[in-house]
Task: structure prediction
Amino acid sequence: MEWDITCIILAGGRSRRMGRDKAFIQVAGVRLFDYVYSRCRSFFSEVVVVTNRPRQFQGYQALIVADEVQGAGSLGGLYTGLLWAKHYYAFCVACDMPFLRPEVIAHLVAKKNNYDVVIPKTKEGLEPLHALYSKKCIEPIKTLLDSGRFKITEFLPKVRVRYCEEEEIRMLDPSLSSFININTKKDLLKVQELLKGAEWEETLKAY
Result:
């Protein structure tokens, strides 16, 4: 399975709450970034990694680019990734989300026609770092950045959005594990336990 869609991996976070670079934290002997990268590499025809530390990602079969706008958080990373993406659509994901499911991503891709953004929505809110974006988003994102506003979902009213409701996603990912990310040491412990479970044994065997 491979889509003619760019995958943007955001790996430029400062990891303030974690206290160290999340991308290079090892879980079961594998760096978090490598879980995400390996999954994305098998799904997408192009991978773009947006980071403040390009040298640390040399050697990956991906386009490694530095943030076009420094200090603009995930919104700036998305903007940079869309500028560099060779495809019209791009799936954007954070580097600390190791439980990506092809079924969920395929569902987002299938809903993209006539929309600029396809984004999951759960009881916890929107999941902008596990969503599909088109290049039509570049200009409204740039307008937001120029105004000094960096909330990643604030530009959505300016584009055509398809919200994928929780009920849709649970049919493909009952536990919503696709959206688990790591912000704290408590989150890291939770992910470590999940990766030791039988469901993720195949993932670990890939390494």
Notes: The first helix runs from residue 32 to 43. The radius of gyration is 16 Å. The first strand starts at residue 3 and ends at 10.
